[in-house]
Write a structure and sequence with these properties.
The protein is an all-alpha fold. It has one domain. It is 66% helix and 0% strand. The chain has eleven helices and no strands.
Length: 236
């Protein structure tokens, strides 16, 4: 499977989303779109064949969020932002039609620049035909979160002056083998014991960052482990 490229930026906390009103609402909504729009687009593409319709629905949904203050009325006590967002999108889609969506292209409403060409390529690369639109949404959500965590981890390692070392060790976050370890140890000039310790530290830090990222979109931090289990099940 080809490597996916996602936009990385500071995560919006679920507990802060109700503040999407007032003078800063447009910029806050733009940030929200950049974080969560691709999984929603993937859901739409699994449900409809019309690429332009899916683009319009995705763009229109975030305009709808701002104009209707949906996030202000959201009940965050009910848990996962992922669940809320998909339910809100499905409800929006059920009340929308292609003509109304098409009008939005040339209207005066807020326009958030979304790279639909890249999103379409990502959809085609990651599509699993046996999955439902809901399952594909969960899959893309998980891939997005994992990418963001890796980006954060990579940035940390760069700040420590260990970018080259990270490039060698990063593949061990997903796969492992004696041959891979032998080559990595040789490239880094480490013993197998030192390499084992370095991989363990990197994986531990990845898990810490993953838990922190997931906690941002949950009401109860105690649900983090369960959410992570569900996320990785979506990749099966």
């Amino acid at each position: 499977m080809a490597t996916r490229k996602f936009v990385h930026f500071e995560t919006t906390n679920w507990s802060e989303l109700a503040s999407l009103t007032g003078p800063e609402a447009d910029s806050a909504l733009a940030a929200l779109c950049l974080k969560y729009w691709e999984p929603l687009y993937a859901f739409a593409r699994r449900r409809f064949n019309d690429v332009h319709l899916c683009q319009d629905l995705t763009q229109g949904f975030f305009q709808h969020i701002l104009s209707k203050n949906i996030l202000r009325s959201a009940d965050r006590d009910r848990g996962r932002f992922r669940t809320f967002l998909l339910a809100a999108f499905k409800n929006y889609v059920s009340h929308e039609n292609s003509r109304a969506a098409a009008k939005r292209r040339g209207g005066d409403l807020l326009h958030v620049p979304l790279d639909f060409e890249e999103a379409e390529r990502a959809f085609l690369e990651t599509r699993v035909d046996r999955k439902t639109p809901e399952q594909h949404f969960d899959r893309m959500w998980t891939l997005k979160l994992i990418h963001d965590v890796r980006a954060s981890l990579r940035a940390e390692q760069r700040q420590k002056g260990q970018a080259d070392r990270f490039d060698v060790l990063e593949p061990f976050l997903a796969a492992d083998s004696p041959t891979r370890r032998m080559h990595a140890a040789s490239e880094l000039g480490l013993s197998q014991e030192a390499l084992r310790a370095a991989i363990s530290r990197l994986r531990r830090r990845f898990r810490e960052l993953l838990k922190a990222e997931v906690a941002l979109v949950l009401h109860d931090s105690e649900d983090v482990d369960d959410e992570i289990r569900q996320m990785f099940q979506s990749l099966a």
